[in-house]
Amino acid sequence: MLKKVTGIIMIICFVFCGTYVLAEGNKPLNREVLRLHVVANSDSSSDQALKLQVKDQVVKVMKAEFSDLESADEARDHAIMRMPLIKAEAEKTIREQGYDYPVQVYVGEYDFPLKSYGNIIFPAGSYPAVRIVIGQGNGKNWWCVLFPPLCMVSSSEKGISLDTPEEAEVTLKCLELLPKGLRFSE
Predict the structure, then answer these.
(1) Closest CA to 46 of 123, 82, 98
(2) Which one has a higher pLDDT value, 132 or 25?
(3) How far is CA 31 from CA 27, 82, 122, 128, 152, in A?
(4) Concatenated DSSP letters for the chain?
(5) Is residue 121 a contact partner of residue 134, using CB atoms and an 8 Å limit?
(6) I need a surface site. Which of 57, 83, 107, 184 has the fewest CB within 10 A?
(7) Is residue 145 within 8 Å of residue 45, measured between CB atoms?
(8) pLDDT tens-digit map of 143-175
(9) Cβ atoms 129, 37 nearer than 8 A
(10) Backbone φ and ψ of 74, nearest 5°
(11) Between 145 and 89, where is the model more confident?
(12) What's the CA gap between 97 and 133, in Å, rounded?
């Protein structure tokens, strides 16, 4: 019985230590990226379509702008410098589509939910981002990673729409390997 209790305590300590190390290892990720966050005027289908058109135009322009940058800090500084261009491109796209919404562009720290792009997982947390707010900004939002370029895909292509975060299933391999008698639940 003592061996069983000792084993369980060791496993719990291992899990907590492993979780801490994993969390600490992921912390720097939010300093290595610059995200793009576009917020629609409303949830109407026309405003949502407009949001994606604005995103496509901004991504198209910024793809060339960001191609030679080497760090997230450099990307953030460049985005701050190019805020007038980003705003002008968004406004132009909105006018071309027959709308008269105002546009606000910010570069700052914003909270994002957990998201994965292929095999890259971005934990929930605060990330530097370029944020474009269309009109009232009451609609669903779209986000991706602007630097390094993980969102350089047109919405008309096979892009990633991130209006709602996907749920992640967390499993611990070490618990799967435990004998059935030591498992906490099945």
Answers:
(1) 98
(2) 132
(3) 8, 20, 11, 7, 20
(4) -HHHHHHHHHHHHHHHHHHHHHHHHHGGGGGS-EEEEEE-S-SSHHHHHHHHHHHHHHHHHHHHHHTT--SHHHHHHHHHHTHHHHHHHHHHHHHHTT----EEEEEEEEEE--EEETTEEE-SEEEEEEEEEETT--S-EEEEEEETTS--S-TTSS----SSPPP-----HHHHTS-GGG-S--
(5) no
(6) 184
(7) no
(8) 888 888 776 554 544 444 444 444 445 454 444
(9) yes
(10) -65, -40
(11) 89
(12) 16
CB atoms within 10 A of CB 119: 5
Phi, psi of 150 (to 5 degrees): -105, 0
Residue 6: its pLDDT value, please?
78
Distance between CA atoms of residues 101 and 134, nearest Å: 6
- Two tokens, residue 103: 């546009």
- Residues 6 or more apart whose CB falls under 8 angstroms from that of 64 comprise none
